[in-house]
Amino acid sequence: MGRRVVAAEPRPPAGALGDGRGSWGVSAAVLLGSAPTYVLAWGAWRLLSAFLPARLYQAVDDRLYCVYQSMVLFFFENYTGVQILLYGDLPKNKENIIYLANHQSTVDWIIADILAVRQNALGHVRYVLKDGLKWLPLYGCYFSQHGGIYVKRSAKFNEKEMRSKLQSYMNAGTPMYLVIFPEGTRYNPELTKVISASQTFAAQEGFAVLKHVLTPRIKATHVAFDSMKNYLDAIYDVTVAFEGTVDDKGQRKEAPSMAEFLCKECPKIHIHIDRIDKKDVPEEQAYMRRWLHERFEIKDKLLIEFYDSLDPERRNKFPGESVNSKLSLKKTLPSLLILSGLTAGMLMTEAGRKLYVRTWIYGTLIGCLWRAARCLARDTRRGEECLLRQRPFLHALGAGLAGCGRRFAVVARQEGHLPRAGETASVRPGRMCLVVMSPRGATPPSTSPPHKSCVSGTKSRDWVFSLKIIKSVLCGRTAFVDLLCFYVTT
């Protein structure tokens, strides 16, 4: 099933390998600089595979993603020289799993890569991401295409959309290494108000108060497990601690950021893995909520042992034996050479440089426009009003739609005019927003559960409607360009 780890041998700290403060910018430049090259390669394959089976497209896309993430691991593991200490059981074979971990740093998503590459499942990693990340240049649109799921918090969480997307992946036989951070936000010991609010909520709900993690949210975890319970093999409960995150007074401090990590400020990462068979996970949401909190109680006890143990020999490590897991350059260096070589070759010619710059600019614009159009398609297709707040791409999209008034009604009014059910309208003077409305009436909701054909049909209609929205924007391109230029120049 899995291998039991053995005792680790001492190793010089990562800082002894050299100070990375002067060269972390080079690492970041290579990682970001390779993005247009990667997007062009993926875009070419996306077009070529338009009429091929979805399973074939996904297999090649996973391979491409593995190449890029292997380059990421070259810098974050091989270059930094960080020591990876694994505790517990890490299965050798690939599995369809949900990965649940504590969230404390922008490096956390790379920890999932660190484990996945050791199972030869790096290309299968997909994330549940907060909604705002969909506007990241180039990456925002691609993460969704690779299988990432953008979710909003609390009342805005769209359960139906997440279920639909997971169902489409299962229908295509997509390998699933789904990463979820149930806390919803990063734990930062300096943000005492956030920690206090989390602890107060836990006490009010009758749960144990947690010290080194936040109270977990259940929605994304429950929807993912409930949708894929017959598709999954297990759940990985992962607890992560970064060594060197205790100050001189013995108090925990903020975990390293990606930039600090590339500066070699983290000598060791301690990772505790607990593989949980799916049959041991309760299906009912109420029971799963308590189960998830109990799992975070276990995480909290591990972190209390790591940070607060009175015994110096037990501090800065998890209970039990560990293994020093080192990643071979054979798994990362080829990817670095391929992507950096292709990027350098592109930048050596004038035509290549133009293509490179245009990919950054137009890839970002088209990606954001597509995401905005998809959001509008979901709302206006059902006759709902879609509020466009002060985001350049959304405003520009609204301006383009305004040029085609026969299809859409676009008006500007003060924000707060559309209160949610049970809320009082609050208007902020001077702040305006655009409201896009479909001229068609709302479609009455169906009372029957969606079948496979219904889900795929809805998705298909959304794509068609998204294309219609983009067509409308192009028809109103004068307003689109004028408003976009206004945002760029101001």
CATH architecture of the largest domain, please? 3-Layer(aba) Sandwich
Helix and strand pattern = EHHHEEHEHEHEHHEHEHEHHEHEEHH
- The rounded Rg comes to 24 Å
CATH topology of the largest domain: Glycerol-3-phosphate (1)-acyltransferase
Quaternary structure of the protein: single chain
DSSP, total strands: 12
Structural class: alpha/beta
Describe the structure.
The chain has 490 residues and is α/β, with parallel strands linked by helices. The protein folds into two domains: 333 residues, Glycerol-3-phosphate (1)-acyltransferase (3-Layer(aba) Sandwich), CATH 3.40.1130; 124 residues, no CATH class. It contains 15 helices and twelve strands. The strands form two sheets. Strands 1, 2, 3, 4, 5, 6, 7, 8 and 9 form a nine-stranded mixed sheet that branches. A three-stranded antiparallel sheet has the order 10-12-11. It is globular and about 60 Å long. The termini are far apart. The N terminus and C terminus are likely disordered. Keywords: Acyltransferase, Lipid biosynthesis, Lipid metabolism, Phospholipid biosynthesis, Phospholipid metabolism, Transferase. InterPro entries: Acyltransf_C (IPR032098), Plipid/glycerol_acylTrfase (IPR002123). One of its GO terms (biological process) is phospholipid biosynthetic process. It comes from Canis lupus familiaris (Dog). One of its GO terms (molecular function) is acyltransferase activity.
